[in-house]
Design a protein that fits this description.
Length: 627
């Protein structure tokens, strides 16, 4: 595990935090159809290949289950015929006429047996299919998780958390439910359709033709509805992703929203996205929902004709009355798989839309792979050098051009400059969160591109302005950078960070559980814990994004002492906002628009009377005016 405590939150030059149309890698426009339906479907089926034998068993179980259920109406028809014949004989006054209940009871026992067999095989196919579906989705989630760990920082910078979560959670869940439910329904529907047709033909080819003639009308209705509902299902998934992104934003920033009185604006944005989701959702459900009544209407027409023709055949004694009953049951069973197939077609549209969005993540451009023969630093010292480094977020917008910096082991380097000058970008490049376009960055003479990212990042410890602590004990949070740390080492790290005292004042001490946002301790206490975490990880190089700007003076002094303890004997990069805290830095880099425009010690830069001197004097002038 990397020793850095969290991803450096760099400049986000093209961050999409709104909810409008996305770019080529974002979420498509509402109403957009899948770009490659067949290709996405084929790719999704590929994930089922490892389970082909299990699927074969499911198919056989579906056939047996369906065959038993298909035979039932025919056998039940024989019982009906026998009862009908007995009743007719009584009405005709035939002596000794009665209903053969022994025969009927035998039929009932046979039917019970068939239904039990059918239920048993249905259970088998559902059980196996649940395993296949979950195993397939497990693999998909595993690939997504591995992919997300390989994606560059710019991917996360250009998307909302809600949008990414929507693809990883909602879309995968949609695929899961389809595989588990719809796939078995599809198999059963196909088997039922074939079996029912065979049984109907065995009873009466003419009545079968009557039912079959309703098929073209059913297909026309289904295809028309599916075509219209497809775009709404896609729009529904897109709007859901936008809604997740918006809710995540307003929830995490609810204090700021309230402070600036933007509740109405946030609610208006939510309402707009919610209405978009509602509009796509109800249209998708309504249009797909009218399949059932329309199919029912078509089927009822078929039943009328079958009843009339069947009645005629019975009077002519061409078929038995039980066969008419069985045929009507088959006719009803005949329409069910078609209706199910129509519903499944709609579900598949939604699933393919989800699968396409998942595959878009899997197809995203990854970080440049580590070299197969990566160089490892056996005894790192902490010498850092930037040579002719060039970097740009966008191809036509240069940010850093020909940067040259030499930092010796153990030195403290302060990086100052206005917002957007490229201070954090410099640290992102040093840790390979972004790749440079040209030049070379080396540590102890080794090009960082020749090192494994994991080993490179193990050299660093980071303390940021925005603390990150997870839901867990204080002890576990400190030990996050070193899982093998002993309890004594954790306590020593806390003492070094001046955090031990406040931890012991808590009711459960080191076992105190921090809530989701660690709001049960103060901001300064959070920062001391992150410093303790960095001390425990014992890094060779430190990156400190000045962490004292949001705390009181007394806490600031404690944090500063803790940071001084942390920096001893280590190469340290300090992103400075309060220039008073970096007077003793060995080297100060002054950045503006991605370039180092001045460098030197505090005294040298003041004597130069340049950009740094202006920054420094303006800060202290403001303080004197306030005082």
């Amino acid at each position: 595990m990397s020793k850095h405590e969290e991803t450096v939150k760099g400049n986000r030059p093209h961050s999409h935090r709104g909810h409008g149309p996305r770019g080529p890698h974002g979420m498509g426009m509402p109403g957009e159809k899948p770009k490659d339906f067949k290709g996405t479907l084929k790719r999704l089926i590929h994930y089922l290949k490892p389970s082909k034998y299990a699927l074969f068993v499911v198919f056989i179980a579906a056939i047996l289950s369906t065959v038993f259920s298909i035979l039932s109406p025919k056998i039940l028809g024989k019982a009906t015929t026998k009862i009908f014949e007995g009743l007719m004989a009584k009405f005709q006054g035939i002596r000794g006429a009665s209903i053969d209940f022994t025969y009927v009871s035998h039929i009932i026992y046979i039917l019970i047996g068939l239904y039990l067999f059918s239920a048993a095989f249905t259970y088998i196919q559902q059980y196996i299919m649940a395993s296949v579906a979950q195993r397939t989705v497990y693999q998909l989630r595993k690939e997504l998780d591995e992919k997300l760990s390989r994606l560059p920082l710019k991917y996360y910078d250009s998307r909302t958390h809600g949008e990414i979560l929507s693809r990883v959670v909602n879309d995968v869940d949609n695929i899961s439910s389809t595989l588990q439910q719809s796939l078995t329904q599809l198999i059963t529907s196909l088997v039922t359709l074939v079996g029912v047709v065979v049984m109907m033909l065995s009873i009466s080819p003419i009545m079968t033709l009557i039912i079959v003639f309703t098929l073209p009308l059913s297909f026309i209705i289904t295809s028309m509805i599916v075509k219209r509902s497809q775009k709404f299902f896609k729009g529904q998934q897109v709007a859901l992703g936008e809604l997740n992104g918006h809710v995540e934003e307003i929830y995490t920033g609810h204090q700021i929203i309230k402070a600036f009185g933007h509740e109405k604006k946030a609610m208006a944005e939510f309402k707009e996205i919610n209405e978009k989701l509602y509009d796509s959702g109800w249209k998708a459900q309504f249009i797909s929902g009218i399949i059932m009544p329309l199919m029912g209407f078509v089927n009822n027409i078929g039943y009328v004709f079958v009843s009339v023709v069947g009645g005629i055949f019975v009077t002519k004694k061409t078929i038995e009355v039980g066969d008419v009953q069985a045929f009507i049951q088959y006719a009803r069973q005949f329409s069910q798989p078609i209706t199910q197939a129509a519903n499944i077609a709609n579900i598949i549209q939604s699933t393919i839309a989800s699968a396409e969005r998942v595959f878009e993540v899997l197809d995203e451009e990854e970080e440049i792979a580590d070299k197969s023969e990566a160089i490892a630093l056996s005894n790192p010292k902490g010498n850092v050098q930037f040579e002719q480094v060039k970097f740009r977020y966008k191809a036509n917008e240069p940010l850093i051009e020909n940067m040259n910096i030499v930092v010796n082991a153990g030195q403290t380097v302060a990086i100052v400059g206005p917002t957007g000058a490229g201070k954090t970008t410099l640290m992102n490049l040093l840790m390979r969160f972004y790749e440079i376009n040209d030049g070379k960055i080396s540590i102890d003479g080794i090009d960082i591109s020749d090192m494994k990212r994991s080993e490179l990042r193990n050299l660093f410890g980071i303390v940021l302005q925005d603390t990150w602590l997870f839901n867990g004990t204080i002890k576990d949070n400190i030990a996050y950078g070193r899982e093998d740390a002993t309890e004594l080492e954790i306590i020593q790290a806390a003492k070094g960070a001046h955090a031990d005292h406040f931890i012991r004042t808590l009711p459960d001490g080191y076992e105190t559980v921090l809530n989701e946002e660690a709001s049960n301790i103060s901001q300064g206490q959070k920062q001391l814990l992150t410093i303790a975490r960095a001390i425990l990880s014992d890094p060779k190089i430190l990156i400190l994004d000045e962490a004292t700007s949001s705390v009181d003076t007394r806490t600031e002094i404690a944090i500063q002492h803790a940071m001084d303890e942390l920096m001893k004997g280590r190469t340290s990069f300090v992103i400075a906002h309060r220039l008073s805290t970096i007077r003793n830095a060995d080297l100060i880099l002054v950045m503006d628009h991605g370039d180092v425009i001045e460098k030197g010690t505090h005294e040298q830069l003041l004597a130069a009377n340049g950009f740094y001197a202006d920054l420094y004097n303006s800060q202290f002038a403001n303080k004197r005016e306030i005082g």
